[in-house]
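Example record

The entry below shows one chain as it appears in the dataset: sequence first, then structure tokens.
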Amino acid sequence: MKNAFSFLLLLCFAYTVKAQESHIKTLQGDTIHFGTCNPGDTIEAVFLFRIEGSERLMIRQVHPGCQCTVPLYPKDSMAPGTIDSIVLALHTRNLHPGPVEKYAIVINTGPEKIFYIYGEILENKGAAPRCRRL
């Protein structure tokens, strides 16, 4: 009986330690809907986040689901409470008109986080490409 109690106590301790692990908490959500854009436009989706927990956190890589999305993210270790951003630049030049659903996986020293970009590319009507920051 004593061994079972010790095991349960150890399990609770391990869970508590794991729960204190730092993680990324988004301030405005994990998804950005950009509406519509013209072919050739560049959409810059900005995801604001804060580091939650008790340990420093480092973003090791932001891995987009395709080559049309380019990430910009902080490379240094961040202390708890730090507010920063990850920018996903979506280049629509080679994408077909219609709905767009893109994502990027944030690989860091805490749990992985996934960000999403949704919108629609209009038919080409000769409009000049532009850049929109969201």
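Notes for this example: The chain has one domain: 23-133. The domain at 23-133 is CATH 2.60.40.10 (Immunoglobulin-like).
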